[in-house]
């Protein structure tokens, strides 16, 4: 990168600019104001409102709302669901991206389309699919109830729905990156005697580590925030099958606004932390790309 | 280590990359696979390396069938056109990679790895850059690192895919002389792919001319340049003039000039093309039985030779002639003058022969 130094002839204190009137750059000013106003109206104001409402009745009330047993159980369930869904989708995402970017096989475009499926299907439908398969009236429902296995209206259903909704994130992030990097380094590793695992571990993954981290962050954010699909399979049993987003809805429907906003602020916090990590990762990624 | 390629064919979809290729490479040889882009030369190299599986045919190393040996176990050194260095590893780690990924029982000790890597880096004169990363190196340096990395595993054969293709002209010239010296030093059977005839002629012991998935000719640089086996080789290696005409009983008539072609003495009146190198044409002092009349368009002095562009009087076709400087000055002709040229040496290919080669 070329460092920009002022020309040596320039005095240390900037001289007054000659009075050449330049026309006002109206177009950039208008477009920038529109974008900023829109951002403030639809993103910043609601975000501020969440925190304002959450702390309206004081910090003590805020902590009580979060420590309340049902809320605490919802937090735990949300953490469990993402702790299972994110690692599984990480493995799937790496495997799918590796296969798509580095090998040619029949049905490759079908696989790419299928990976996008959760993006194109409404989350409610995603949840309903599991009810239709595992529910009491579903395909394997009777068999499951005979063996006393509960999937729908229980934790396994929530985990399944979360996995389904979040599985494109890691793969989607990695595929273009791996495709752009080509296959030459992998071929070089193979010629040098590296096995498939060694190539994956020492060559492919280090090359995509920032993209991978970015994909995991997005996947995690979605896993914790998912509402639609989880709502269908959860059954809303307080203290048992409520995730944080579902808990917020219940509190809100019961007019417990301050408590609802307190719980919602946790999710908002998560979003802010995700954004912060994302910007750091993107900065690192750009730095690597400039190399 | 000798390499034998026996009847290798390879298709990519409907594209026939290799079509029944046979090739013998002797131990310690430096062989160039020369051909235009899309001729199949890179595919042939990748099949030898094991990076592609041939549809049919066998690959033998030292007489041993390696066709079904996986690329990891083939012990070949491969240098990629765009180097394919591991971008997140230092130069040292790049070169050490092939040793580090060996199974524990075969892996050298850390001290031994360090010794061997530094030895190779000294060989390529880059030991002072061992802790840099590939993006901090110039193209020529990266190419040398790629070569050191390939040599680190002590390969049986060294394969190079367009090793100098991505470099600028000056670095190219330096590097190819260096490669030639290196080869003479380590004496490893080596095959490199190039589309640059000058590179092949300068560096290789033998040249394999490849076109449309087939081998057109195999020979020393002098053989392929002086005695091209097919019209394709004639046109691909060096400049050549084409004279259309007819052959009858061993004599080709190409519009005034007669060319002896004893190899076609049993041929009766067939369309043919004579291939004549610019330096195999002379300017005659006067019109004769075997001369053709032409106008001198211009003459360019290039070092010790003079390149003349003539246009034939009968059909207007351009003819390129190369004369020594003394010869040209002795002739005392100027631009626009009428001259008579005579072919000293030519190779005549029959038309149907030509067609079948071109198809």
> What is the CA–CA distance across the termini of chain B?
36 Å
Q: What level of helicity do the residues of chain B show?
A: 25-40%
Q: Which percent bin holds the helix content of chain A?
A: over 70%
Shape of chain A: flat
Describe the structure.
The complex is a heterodimer of chains A (291) and B (359). Chain A has 14 helices and no strands. Chain B contains ten helices and 20 strands. In chain B, helix 3 crosses helix 4. Chains A and B meet through helix 9 and helix 10 of A and strand 6 and helix 4 of B.
Summarize the model shown.
The complex is a heterodimer of chains A (291) and B (359). Chain A is an all-alpha fold and 291 residues long.
Which key terms come to mind for this protein?
heterodimer, A: 291 residues, mainly alpha, 14 helices, 75% helix, flat, disordered N terminus, B: 359 residues, alpha+beta, six-stranded mixed beta sheet, five-stranded antiparallel beta sheet, 10 helices, 20 strands, elongated, disordered C terminus
Chart the SSEs and their pairings.
The complex is a heterodimer of chains A (291) and B (359).
Chain A (H helix, E strand, L loop, with lengths): L25 H29 L4 H9 L1 H34 L5 H13 L2 H12 L6 H6 L8 H12 L1 H14 L2 H8 L4 H12 L1 H17 L2 H7 L9 H10 L3 H34 L1
Helix pairs in contact in A: 1-14, 2-14, 3-7, 3-8, 3-11, 3-13, 5-7, 5-12, 7-11, 7-12, 8-11, 9-10, 11-14, 13-14
Chain B lengths: L2 E10 L2 E11 L4 E5 L6 H9 L6 E6 L2 E2 L10 E4 L11 H10 L9 H14 L15 H14 L4 E5 L7 H18 L3 E5 L2 H7 L2 E6 L2 E6 L1 H6 L4 H6 L4 E8 L2 E3 L4 E3 L9 E7 L4 E4 L7 E11 L2 E8 L5 E7 H7 L6 E6 L3 E4 H8 L1
Parallel strand pairs in B: 3-8, 3-9, 6-7, 7-8
Antiparallel strand pairs in B: 1-2, 1-4, 4-5, 9-10, 11-12, 11-14, 12-13, 14-20, 15-19, 16-17, 16-19, 17-18
Helix pairs in contact in B: 2-3, 2-4, 3-4
